[in-house]
Each structure stands twice: as C-alpha cells, then as structure tokens.
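Per reviewer request, we include the raw input and output of the structure prediction for the construct analysed in the revised manuscript.
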Amino acid sequence: MATGGSAIRGSRVGAGPMGEQDHGYHAERVKVCYWDALGNETVRYFAANVADEDIPEIIDSPSSGLPAGRDQANPPVEAKVEPYKTHLAYVKERRTEDEAKTLLEDALMQLRRRRGTLTS
C-alpha cells in the first residue's frame, strides 16, 4: 500500500521546522491600554522607540465606537455632535430680528429702485 505526498502532512515545502523563532527580527514593543466609558479595554502595541508624545492619548474603541483613553478611572466622554445647521440658522445666530428687518427693507428698496417701482 503506497501513499504519495509529503512525509510530513500539513506542512508547506520550505516552511522549516515548526515553532522556530528565528524567522526575522522582532522589534521591541510597548503595550498601551485604552478604556472607554463602558469599561471596555483595548490594547495597542507601539514600537519601543516611538516617543511618548507620539502615542495617541485617545483612540476610537473598536468594540463600542466611543472614545477610549489611557486613564481607566477617567475615560473620555463622547463629544456632543452638533446637528446640521442650514445657512439661515447661521444667519439667525449673527443677526437680531430687528437687524434682519432693516436689512430686508434696504434690499427691497434697492430692488424697487432698480425696477423703477419705488413709490415715494
């Protein structure tokens, strides 16, 4: 009963011995933990030669979508999302009702003057 194929089943040609740790250089890493407001922990690894100020203080938690910070006791709160504002809403923030009426009257007067329908 002859069987064909590799003497070691389940291995690739040229894969080398299983469990061998000498396949390339492993850079030193720093483990950084982040927590969101729900208590979910997210771990990120950064190269050990990265400056501490280059490691982000806040990330988005992949499990909840909330912001996650490095301080477990004081996780960041979600920033309030402002609803979409129309152009008119921004104008109303800058102008009072009286200013709006004055501007409208001036614009209408200029329009009537151009059309020749201005009555004295």
